[in-house]
Amino acid sequence: MSRKIFESRQKLLLKRKIHSLMKPYDILVPTHLAIETTNMCNGKCIFCPHNIMTRSLGVMNMELFRKIINDAKTIGSVEFITHGGMGEPLFDKSIAKRIATEKSKLNCRVQLHTNGSLLDKDNIQKLFEVGLDVLSISLNAFNDHTYKDITGLDYKKTRQNVENAFEMKEKTQADTKIRITMVKTNDMPPEETENFRDYWRAFTPNVAVHPSKNWAYFTKNEIKGRKYPCKWIWYMMSINWDGKVNLCHEDFDARFVIGDLTKETIVGVFNCDKIRTIRRSFYENGKSLPILCNDCSRLKLDKFWWLGVNVNELPNGYKKYSERFHGGTF
Ligand code: SF4
After folding, report:
1. Is the CB of 102 under 6 A from ligand 1?
2. Widest CA span of the chain, in angstroms?
3. What atom in ligand 1 is closest to the CA of residue 249?
4. How close is the Cα of 219 to the center of ligand 1, in Å?
5. Tens digits of per-residue pLDDT, 101-154?
6. Is the CB of residue 136 less than 8 Å from the CB of residue 115?
7. Nearest Cα residue to atom 3 of ligand 1
8. Ligand 1 center to residue 247 CA distance, Å?
9. Euclidean distance between the first and final Cα of the chain, in Å?
10. What is residue 17's predicted lDDT score, i.e. its pLDDT?
């Protein structure tokens, strides 16, 4: 068999497998909640649309937070929670308390995305104590001046915070995994990413350099290549600090709100007409998608998720997608 025929057969098999995994007519429940407990941020990262976001700034109130967690507990499907969204979660003074609640009520894995600038020893200790599973720190540069240009923050201070976190993890034998990440911008010299990897790999094997994404409609999609159906709308719910639910976390300015958890339930929002129509569009032909999906750089990246996912039915008849590998990042 020629290589060309082999490759086209592989593509066809993958297409069929993905198609068989899409369940647009079932009642789906999320396994992943992305909870933005605040959208306030002190960073000015050049690849982030925070500075053009028109949503009002705030912090999720505890009443709403408890409502969401109680609702999730009733459904029993949530395996993973991430905190980040459009804000720096350490601006939320209750973040450790919330993580403790999530861990005790839902027994799920929790990941926190931070820029590290507010990660003082007190915060590190609290996060370790409540059993945070993954502390993901976006450093985004290696040198002082590059860091300042890219994030607007003070590198020496942030680097010290991060090194303190490693030291305290070692000392306390905390189970929290520390991840160090960087977004590679177009004009970044290769030595910046190489030095970054070399330096942080001395502390942890969990070092990742990602290409810059386009936030659906913030910049032009520069990631070319084959597209796969979006994975996020099948298993992840993106909740803003005010309870509004976006189609996905790419919708930084909540232009495509699908529901409001101050008044609705997780199951109701996750199966509303808006999102079901989009699931059907992906299932049928990938046409008639909303404008934010049309040129989203996420689509190209979703192949591996589809290859490692299962669909399970819960005792109440709802279906959920479970990842066999909790990469736990987006
Ligand atoms: S294609 Fe992009 S914008 Fe559309 S739902 Fe998926 S991640 Fe969001």
Report:
1. no
2. 62
3. 8
4. 14
5. 999 999 999 999 999 999 999 999 999 999 999 999 999 999 999 999 999 999
6. no
7. 293
8. 7
9. 38
10. 87
